[in-house]
Amino acid sequence: MAEALAAMLSFPPDNVAKLTPKEYDQEIQHYGKALERIPTVFWTKPVDGQNVLELLNPAINSIPFAVALVEQIKATGKDKSRNVALLNWALIFFACFDPVQVRYASDQWVQLLGWVRDKLRANSIPDFTPITAAMLRLDPTAGTFTSHHLTLVRTCLGAGLPSQALPIIDKNIYAFPTSPPKNVPEELASEEHELSNGFITSKSNFTNKVHTEHILEYYLLGAHVYIGLRNFTRARLFLEYVLLTPSQQHTASVLQVEAYKKWVLIGLLAEGKAYPLPRTHDTAVMKSIRALAKPYDVLSDCFEKRDWRKFHAEMDFGAQVWHEDGTLRMVREVCDALLRFRVMDLAKTYAALEVSRIASNCEFNDAETLQMLQEMIRHGGLNASLTPGATAGEAVLRFHNTDSGPSSARVQENELEAQTKRIDDLVTFVRDADRRLQLTKEYVEYQKRSKRQGSMMDGDPADLMDLTWDAPAPTITDEGDEDIMAS
C-alpha cells in the first residue's frame, strides 16, 4: 500500500513549473501508466485507518483524487451516508481541481460531473452551481459546445432554477468538438491553449457526440431562460441561431418552428412589433416555418395595427393552439403589452394627456384606464407619472423623456464597452478558426491549386492580357444600347 500511495503522490514533480509542454506531457503520460498498474482495491482500501482521499490534495493530486472518487462511488452502492460524504468530496474537487491535469483524466471528470448532477437532482438540492463551476474551471470560456451544456440547461429548467444556467449560456459558443486534421500533429493537452477547442475534441472524451438537434435544443432552451428573465436581446440572439441553422434539402425543423413562434411574441413584447426576419435566412425554410406558425403572424398583424379588440378575439379563438404550444401565458402578456404600446404611441404626439382622452383611445372607462396606467407605471412598463384630478378622467398622465440625462449616457457607455468586448472576442475566435482552417486537407489542396495558377502569371500581368479586339456582331447597331435599356 505504501508503494501505491507513493505512486499516487509522484506527480507533479517539484520542477513542474520549469517543464515545457512536451516534457509535461511525457511526465504525465508516464504517471498515468503508473496509476493504471495500481489494483482497484487500493483506491477504496483505508491507509492506516484513513481514507485515501484524505491523503490526497485535490488541487495538486487531481488525477488520483478523481480516480479514487470514481472507484469509491462504484463500491459504495446505495449507502446514503457514504454517498453524502462522497458528494461533499466531489464538491470540494470541483472547486479546486487542476484543469490541466484533468485534461488527462476526462473519463473520470465526466463520470463525476454526471454523478454529482444526478445526486443533486435526486436529493432535491436546489443548487447546481458546482456543475457550472466545474465546467468553467475546465474551460473558462465555455465556448466549445459539449453535451454537458445542453444537459445543464435541461436540468436547471426541469428543477425550476433557470437562472443557474446563466454562467454557461451567457458565454458565446465559438467552436464544436472536431477531430484533428490527418497528417497534422495533434496539439498537446498540456499546452497553453488560447481557446478550449484545442483540448476539447471529439477524441478527448469530454463530451458525447453532438448532433444538430442538440445545438438547436440548447439555443431554444437558452432562449426560454432569457425570456423568463426578460432579457429579450439575448433571447432574440439565441432564437436567431436556431432560425438560421442550415438544413439538408431546405427542410424546417420542429425546433425552428417553435423558435419562430417565440421570435414573434418577444418582438411584440420588446419593441411593439415582430422582429424583422434575419437577412440570411433560408427562404424555403422560412416559408415552411411561417405556414406552420400562421396563427402567430395573425396576432402580430393585429398587434402592429394596435387593434386590441381584434387581437383579443384572435387570442380567444386560438386558445387551444396557445395551450398546446405552451405559449398561452406569453400570448396573454402580449395582449397586456398591446394596451401599453397604445398608450406609449400617444407620447409621440403629446407630452401630457388627460386620462379621459386615453380612455377614449383605448375604449375603456376612466376608472379602468386610470388603474391600468397606475399598474404600468408601477411595474416599469411606462415611463410617466400621474397627476391626480377631481375625478379619474381629469387625472393627467405626463410622459417622461428617456433619451437624455446622465443615466442614458451611462447606459450607452456600458453598451459601447460590451460591444467592444464582443468584437475583441470575435477577433480571437476568427483568428483561431483561420488557423485551424489552414490545417485542413481542403485548404492545402486549395493552396496548391492557387500556386499552380499563379505560376502561369509569371512576368508582367499586363503582358499577359488579351489585347485582341473583336468587331461587333453585324446585328448590333449604334442604337443597341438604347434598345437594351428599353427592354
Which value, in Å, is the CA radius of gyration? 31 Å
Task: Tell me the strand percentage band.
Answer: under 5%
Total E-strand runs: 3
Largest sheet: 3 strands, antiparallel
Q: Class by helix and strand content?
A: mainly alpha
| Uncertain stretches | 460-487
Distance between the termini: 93 Å
Query: What integer is the average pLDDT?
Result: 86
Q: How are the strands ordered across the major sheet?
A: 1-3-2
Proportion in helices: 55-70%
Q: Secondary-structure element sequence?
A: HHHHHHHHHHHHHHHHHHHEHHEEHHH
Number of H- or I-type helical stretches: 24
Report on the architecture of this protein:
The protein has helices spanning 2-8, 21-36, 41-44, 52-55, 62-76, 80-96, 99-102, 106-122, 129-138, 147-158, 166-169, 212-228, 232-244, 254-271, 283-292, 294-304, 308-317, 319-325, 328-346, 355-362, 366-378, 406-437, 441-455, 480-486, and strands at residues 352-354, 384-387, 396-399. Among the domains are: 1-125, no CATH class; 211-346, no CATH class; 350-409, Arc Repressor Mutant, subunit A (Orthogonal Bundle). 60% of the residues lie in helices and 2% in strands. The protein has 487 residues and is an all-alpha fold. The radius of gyration is 31 Å and the shape is elongated.
